[in-house]
């Protein structure tokens, strides 16, 4: 089968022939239809410091996908050939304290699809049945392909109550854009998104942001004044990993405000801990999705009319992966999809 492989310990990805994945007794074999390009995939392609420390070559990359089940292991009873499925990309041990307590998203031994084991940028992928999500209601294939990052957005956005709250989102990348749509759909009063890309800020407005600020020209405090907010934001969703973004968010939160952090900083940086303490601000780190409560929430949000179509701005054949990755790395659009049937 064809697969997009990190074949060598150097920048680049290679579309080559590899063996089809094996299917164990508890596994599901899936014919991949479409995949989404993630920031993790960009790191691996660029072969940056994180990738060099994390990735063992050769490796089939990719973890965002939708596909059709073509075979199941002998112990799989609730998934059948023909089912349309996506996959939870975090494979957990099932034996640690958190796994045994039902907190699988907190497993310390998590292995990432397309990071610690062969992934989904291929014609076929094999996953344990426990990691397979069957789409039992109709869903657009492009949207189904990005359930993984959509789940990150949902997990972050729904970490704290949003009804009638004023929400600040720093970072209008694809997950920040989806978080804006979720926050508005979930009943937030004001949704403010910040970035430095006017193209992405335009997307934020389409996805539900009442105010989209270019922070290279306008401050968050200016945005507060424009909206008539007197005490600051109630909920912050930090999606950028940018030190200045978090510092500005903290400075513009109300007393007792709550911040969920998904953006991953490249290195340590200082923040105003005195402000966090005296303003009694809650900080919560987010990684991945709650298994599988977030997946239920994603499905229900879509059934309830949440429209993610504007977040998908690039569609390519898998054969045109170089152009697709260049698009995704450009920092101006939303999600980029690879079609494995074209």
Automatic annotation (TrEMBL):
It comes from Streptomyces thermocoprophilus. Pathway: Metabolic intermediate biosynthesis; 2-deoxystreptamine biosynthesis; 2-deoxystreptamine from D-glucose 6-phosphate: step 3/4; Amino-acid degradation; L-threonine degradation via oxydo-reductase pathway; glycine from L-threonine: step 1/2. Its EC number is 1.1.1.103. It is found in: Cytoplasm. Zn(2+) 2 binds at residues 93, 96, 99, 107. It catalyses: L-threonine + NAD(+) = (2S)-2-amino-3-oxobutanoate + NADH + H(+); 2-deoxy-scyllo-inosamine + NAD(+) = 3-amino-2,3-dideoxy-scyllo-inosose + NADH + H(+); 2-deoxy-scyllo-inosamine + NADP(+) = 3-amino-2,3-dideoxy-scyllo-inosose + NADPH + H(+). GO terms for molecular function: L-threonine 3-dehydrogenase activity. Binds 2 Zn(2+) ions per subunit. NAD(+) binds at residues 175, 195, 200, 262-264, 286-287. Homotetramer. Keywords: Cytoplasm, Metal-binding, NAD, Oxidoreductase, Zinc. The record marks 148 as: Important for catalytic activity for the proton relay mechanism but does not participate directly in the coordination of zinc atom. This is L-threonine 3-dehydrogenase. Catalyzes the oxidation of 2-deoxy-scyllo-inosamine (DOIA) with NAD(+) or NADP(+), forming 3-amino-2,3-dideoxy-scyllo-inosose (amino-DOI). Catalyzes the NAD(+)-dependent oxidation of L-threonine to 2-amino-3-ketobutyrate. SUPFAM superfamilies: GroES-like, NAD(P)-binding Rossmann-fold domains. Its main location: cytoplasm. Its cofactor is Zn(2+). InterPro entries: ADH-like_C, ADH-like_N, ADH_Zn_CS, GroES-like_sf, L-Threonine_3-DHase, NAD(P)-bd_dom_sf, Zn_alcohol_dh. Residues 174-300 form the Alcohol dehydrogenase-like C-terminal domain. The active site is at residues 40, 43. Belongs to the zinc-containing alcohol dehydrogenase family. DOIA dehydrogenase subfamily. Residues 24-133 form the Alcohol dehydrogenase-like N-terminal domain. It comes from the Bacteria.
């Amino acid at each position: 089968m064809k697969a997009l492989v990190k074949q060598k310990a150097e920048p680049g990805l290679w579309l080559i022939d590899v063996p089809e994945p094996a299917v164990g007794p508890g596994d599901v074999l899936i014919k991949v239809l479409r995949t989404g390009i993630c920031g993790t995939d960009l790191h691996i392609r660029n072969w940056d410091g994180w990738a060099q420390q994390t990735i063992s070559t050769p490796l089939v990359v990719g973890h965002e996908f939708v596909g059709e089940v073509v075979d199941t292991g002998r112990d799989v009873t609730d998934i059948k050939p023909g089912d349309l499925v996506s996959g939870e990309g975090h494979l957990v041990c099932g034996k640690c304290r958190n796994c045994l307590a039902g907190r699988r998203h907190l497993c310390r031994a998590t292995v990432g699809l397309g990071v610690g084991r062969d992934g989904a940028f291929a014609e076929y992928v094999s996953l344990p049945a426990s990691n397979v999500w069957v789409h039992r209601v109709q869903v657009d294939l492009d949207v189904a392909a990005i359930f993984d990052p959509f789940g990150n957005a949902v997990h972050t956005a729904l970490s704290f109550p949003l009804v009638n709250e004023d929400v600040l989102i720093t970072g209008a990348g694809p997950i920040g854009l989806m978080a804006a749509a979720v926050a508005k759909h979930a009943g937030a009063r004001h949704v403010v998104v910040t970035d430095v890309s006017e193209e992405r800020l335009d997307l934020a407005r389409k996805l539900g942001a009442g105010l989209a600020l270019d922070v290279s020209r306008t401050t968050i405090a200016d945005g507060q004044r424009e909206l008539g907010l007197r005490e600051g934001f109630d909920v912050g969703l930090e999606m950028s990993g940018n030190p200045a973004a978090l510092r500005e968010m903290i400075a513009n939160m109300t007393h007792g405000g709550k911040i969920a952090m998904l953006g991953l900083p490249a290195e340590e940086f200082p923040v105003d801990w005195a402000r966090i303490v005296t303003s009694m601000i809650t900080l919560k780190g987010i990684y991945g999705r709650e298994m599988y409560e977030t997946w239920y929430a994603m499905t229900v949000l879509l059934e309830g009319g949440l429209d993610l179509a504007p977040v998908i701005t690039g569609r390519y054949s898998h054969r045109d992966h170089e152009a697709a990755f260049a698009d995704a790395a450009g920092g101006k659009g939303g999600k980029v999809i690879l079609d494995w049937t074209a």
